[in-house]
Structures are given as C-alpha cells and as structure tokens.
Fold each of these.
Amino acid sequence: MESAINALVSGFKAYAGRDGSSDTLSRDEFYRLVSSELPNFIKKADDPAAIDQLMSSLDKNNDGELNFLEFWQLIGQLASKHGRFSQ
C-alpha cells in the first residue's frame, strides 16, 4: 500500500504546478491527469465538459483548483467503486 500512496502523491505532483501553484491542480492540469492517468476509471475522460463537472463536484472550497485532499476524494470514490464496496 505504501507504493500505491507514493505513486498517487508523485502523480499528483507531476501534474500540479504546471500552470501555477505546485500544491494544486488547475482545470487544465486536472484534465491532463484524468485523460492520461485515469482513462479507464473515469467515464468520458476525454470530454472537457464532463471533466469540468467532475472537478466542480470535488472543488469543495470553490477556488477553481483541486488541492490534494480534494483530489483524494476522487481516488477514494474510484477505489470504492472499483472494489465494489458499498457507499
């Protein structure tokens, strides 16, 4: 599990900061991350409107960016769905 956490943190950091803050994902950074790294887990990963909607649902402080904790919510949701755990 440690390697999985390391991979998630490294993946987040690899995309965050390209457009601004290295601690957050902008809309474009999030789109690139989802379409490159999660195409089989996110429906319509190549649809910018669908990604905008997904990002809005995760952006709890409505600042237009995703911090790691906001992004982590997505990872938890995807893992729960993939593992077929009840919500």
Note: DSSP finds four helices and two strands in the chain.
Amino acid sequence: MGARELPVDERERLELCGLLAETGPDAPTLCEGWTTLDLAAHLVLREHFSRWDDERLAGEKAKGLPALIGRLRAGAPAVPWRIPGLRTLLNGAEFLIHHEDVRRANGMEPRTGRPDLDALAWRTVRLSGWQAARKIRPHGLELRVPGGPTRRFGADGGAVLTGPPVELLLYLSGRREAARVEVAGDPGAVAALDAS
C-alpha cells in the first residue's frame, strides 16, 4: 500500500515522524514550553496510557527521540485507536495539529494541495467551532472557506473567521498567532472571541 493509499491519520502520523527525525529533539513547537522531544513523548503517552504525570513524561523523554519515533511509527494500539471511522476522529486532527505545531515553529510554510487535510480539518472544525461559539454567547460565530463552504454557529451577525480549513482548525485549537485567518464581524463578537 502506497503512502497516498493510507488513511489520512496514518499519513499524518508517518509524515510527522519524518519531520521529528529531521528537526531533532530540541526543535521548537507551537506548544508553549515544549520541544519536539516533549511533543513526541506526549503523543506516545496519549495512545498508551489514559493518564500520566510529569514523572512518566520524563521517563518517556529519557528514552530519546529515535525510540519515541519508532514507537509512533509502529502505530497505535488496536482499541480504540485503529477502529475504522473512530481512528480518523481520534487521531486525525491530533496528528494534523501537532504536525503543524512543528512545521510552523520551524519556519515552514502551510502545506498546499492536500484536499485530504482540508477535508479532515473541515470535519473537525464542526466540533471546535461549536465549542468556540458556546464561549462567546450571545454572539454567533461563522467559519468561511474562501470559495468554499460556510458554517454558522449561534446567532447571525457575530464573529467571522475566514481561511482555509487547516488554518481555521489551527486558530480554533489555540494556535492563533500561527493561523492564517481573517477575523471580522461584529466588534463585540470579535472581542469576545479574542478573550475566549
């Protein structure tokens, strides 16, 4: 099976592993205070343990980046991470966002020509947009893709975020400085969104 035939979450996992190996353990990420080593340890722990503390995180980091990359490349445990349908929901956005955390923190441009990533991000912003809209009530929130779909949450006339799906996802997941989106709309709604 070629790389393009793999499910999008698996492609993102493998591409992120390649990027982690390329950048090394001390490269920055968009996750405040985390290097690529911290991020790799987080991803391993997330799939193999329901809870962990700083000691367990330090233990994983002590294994070194190559070992963590090897564990990530081996794939996630079968349940629930590899169940068809659930796998993309559980891991797709996680790997997409963290892939961009490494790319953007290291001066790399957004990836283009990846409709698989756009589709994954657009599915994911349905939930994250709803969560963001709840935080800015009574204002509404509208997400717009230039030349593409629009999704509205809550009241009309609220804040409007415009950008490609991956950029909208990054903005809604807290990577506002790195996300290439335009924020417009009702000033009160925009202020509420900025404060959320």
Note: The helical segments are 8-23, 36-48, 54-62, 65-74, 86-105, 115-135, 165-172, 187-195.
